[in-house]
Specification:
There is one protein chain. The chain is an alpha/beta fold and about 425 residues long. The protein has 16 helices and 16 strands. The protein has two domains: about 70 residues, Urease, subunit C, domain 1; about 290 residues, TIM Barrel. Strand 1 and strand 2 form a beta hairpin. Helix 5 crosses helix 6, helix 7 runs parallel beside helix 8 and helix 8 packs across helix 9.
Length: about 425
């Protein structure tokens, strides 16, 4: 044995001897610091589920969760006090259809996200995800469902980084790579067949469908998304039922992108968890969705986004379908599908602008707010911990100048944001 190795062994032995002779109290690790206690004085407190408002409430937050709520809750000594007595306090908002890890640049990409996917690497898109997530959080969106178009699983890494506290952002429920019939949402040329990957997993046979679902789960997806109908051939009802069964067998829900009447009808009949877009749904399609407990995430494009993207479908088409869906009583969750950059706007300000479509469709503020909170929380499967303000639930809290039940437009003016008990905007 060399002298250096003998020396290291001697030092190790001395260190162990010293440790064993220390008093028991000295060997114990330091106790973790007590969680921060924050007391929020809410002038008005909105419960979106009931549509009721309570005045002069105290919300006691301990660590990441709500400990108590009430008019006479005692504020412990040493608690951090946040005075929102002139504001309305409510749960953080949800966007159930986001693409945080993709930003179409209209001039560079000619409003064609196929070009975006060719130019931007997965690493770059992960960085975009951080920036877009922070912008969403600043606008009051504390939970999002990131529903594909994230390159090679940038959405999983974004979710993991937020959960680990590496970066700040909303709670992310991510869908991994979109599963679709051959070609996905792109039209390829024979010499360059691989240019749709890794954006899509092509799955046309049962074995391919099963493998695609399992690959997504293996690489961290928390929701499965399929494209039903962006090719001349579409998934049948049996195809979709099979995919739903594979997702549900592993405890995941399934969202179905439906751009046509035929695709939406098949998805509604198959009983997917949510139909995305569905703007060409007939009243019969909507009735079928209601019957089969399918949630509609309609992504009713704002007039601003419709103009900016050169959307070939008139803004009024989206508003009309939203109006009909609400009248029929389809369960709905708020989602935007914002995936582009616009001068002077952030991902959050573009997303909140979609409330205009709900106002134009005549949806009451109380029901719009439910779609943006508790309805979306249930769809995303996080309603046991988010989407409402109750003891034991996560402290995802926002505040607005006015009561959104009286004027939904006040959601554009979110002045306070708390995420998991940490103040991120005040």
């Amino acid at each position: 044995m060399s002298k250096s190795r003998i020396g290291r062994s001697l030092l190790l032995g001395l260190a162990l001897t010293a440790l064993l002779t220390l008093p028991a109290a000295a060997q114990q690790s330091e106790k973790p610091a007590a969680p921060q206690i924050t007391a929020i004085k809410a002038g008005k407190l909105v419960d979106p589920e009931t549509g009721k408002t309570a005045a002069n409430q105290i919300i006691l937050v301990e660590g990441r969760t709500i400990k108590a709520i009430g008019e006479k809750v005692a504020i412990p000594a040493g608690a951090k006090v946040v005075d929102l007595s002139k504001s309305t306090v409510l749960p953080g908002l949800f966007d159930a259809h986001t693409h945080l890890c993709m930003s179409v640049q209209p001039k560079r990409d000619a409003n064609n996200y196929y070009i975006t996917t060719l130019l931007d690497t997965t690493a770059y898109r992960a960085i975009e995800g951080v920036a877009n997530g922070q912008a969403m959080l600043a606008s009051g969106f504390t939970t999002v469902r990131d529903i594909g178009n994230a390159g090679n699983y940038a959405d999983t890494d974004l979710r993991r980084a937020i959960e680990a506290g590496v970066v700040q952002g909303p709670t992310v429920v991510n869908s991994g790579i979109i599963i679709a019939p051959y070609g996905g949402q792109f039209h390829l040329q024979p010499e360059k067949k691989d240019l749709a990957t890794p954006e899509y997993l092509f799955a046309d046979t049962r074995d391919e469908m099963r493998k695609a679902v399992r690959q997504n789960i293996h690489f961290g997806a928390k929701f499965i998304k399929i494209v039903v109908d962006d090719q001349d051939y579409i998934y049948s009802v049996d195809d979709i039922r099979y995919l739903v069964g594979e997702a549900h067998a592993s405890g995941l829900k399934l969202a179905a992108h439906c751009w046509t009447h035929a695709g939406a009808h098949n998805a509604a009949e198959a009983g997917v968890d949510s139909i995305e877009h569905g703007f060409q749904m007939t009243d019969d399609d909507l009735q079928l969705a209601k019957k089969n407990n399918v949630t509609l995430v309609g992504t009713e494009f704002s007039e601003k986004m419709t103009r900016a993207l050169g959307n070939p479908w008139d803004h009024k088409t989206w508003v009309d379908r939203l109006r009909r869906a609400y009248k029929i009583g389809v369960n709905m969750a708020f989602g935007t599908d914002v995936d582009a950059e616009m001068p002077g706007e952030t991902r959050g300000t573009l997303a909140i602008d979609y409330i205009n479509s709900w106002v134009e469709a005549g949806v009451p503020a109380a029901d719009t707010l439910r779609a943006m909170t508790i309805n979306a929380a249930r769809l995303l499967g996080v309603d046991k911990e988010r989407g409402a303000l109750k003891p034991g639930m996560a402290a995802d809290i926002i505040a607005t100048p006015e009561n959104p039940l009286d004027d939904i437009q006040t959601l554009r003016k979110v002045a306070f944001v708390m995420k998991d008990g940490a103040i991120v905007k005040q």
